[in-house]
Amino acid sequence: MKPEYAERMALDRISTLPQPILEPILSLLSTEEAARTSILSKEWRYRWTTIPNLEFTLRKRTSELTSDEESEMKYMDMHDLHQVLLLRHGPIHELTLFMEGYWEDDDLFEFEQIILHLSRNHIVRELVLDASESLWYKLPISVFSLHHLMELHLRSFTIELPSIFNGFGSLVRLDLNDGEISTQTLRHLLSNCPTLKSLSLVGS
């Protein structure tokens, strides 16, 4: 059997697997690797968009970088991420964002819109927001609208509660690293997390 034919046959076998089997397989890949499967065929173009657990590294594009340098970096900016999430076909249960570099006000506004979109359209159970160690950003208020959260991991954020906060009724684990939160805010937050079992405060 020719190698090319054998390769096509192997791909066809994978393509015929039912979606409930394909999703766990794709979930074992990184988000970037899963997205690459979209070039396999028309049938595969949107299959990766049903993966419920996503991880992205974000970096703001600057005019100092050439288009070739940007393409080699393989990073997304806030706008890219927003567009990807809007095109999603499936639920988002876990989202991890590594935010590198300096983000301006317009980027942070879009960041707020991203979290707002999640709160309105998805049942997010785990959220990881990891910003630069040297900078603190104000945590989007819309994070407190993610009422189904079971795990929340924050790094390098200033945390202020909204005027109306109904709590995280399902939150089991809370990690706050290298951020800023007042004692009063922390007490109020914890008093509204009735199911909390694990709390980690590092450098906060």
Helix content: 25-40%
Structural class: alpha/beta
CATH topology of the largest domain: Leucine-rich repeat, LRR (right-handed beta-alpha superhelix)
CATH architecture of the largest domain: Alpha-Beta Horseshoe
Portion in beta strands: 15-25%
Largest sheet: 6 strands, parallel
Shape: globular
Main sheet: strand order? 1-2-3-5-7-8
Any low-confidence stretches, pLDDT <50, length ≥5?
Answer: 63-73
Report on this model:
It contains seven helices and eight strands, in the order αααβααβαβββββαβ. The chain has 204 residues and is α/β, with parallel strands linked by helices. The protein has two domains: 47 residues, no CATH class; 151 residues, Leucine-rich repeat, LRR (right-handed beta-alpha superhelix), CATH 3.80.10. The strands form two sheets. A six-stranded parallel beta sheet has the order 1-2-3-5-7-8, with no helix packed on it. Strands 4-6 form a two-stranded parallel sheet. Helix 7 links the parallel strand 7 and strand 8. The longest helix has 17 residues. The radius of gyration is 20 Å and the shape is globular. The termini are far apart.
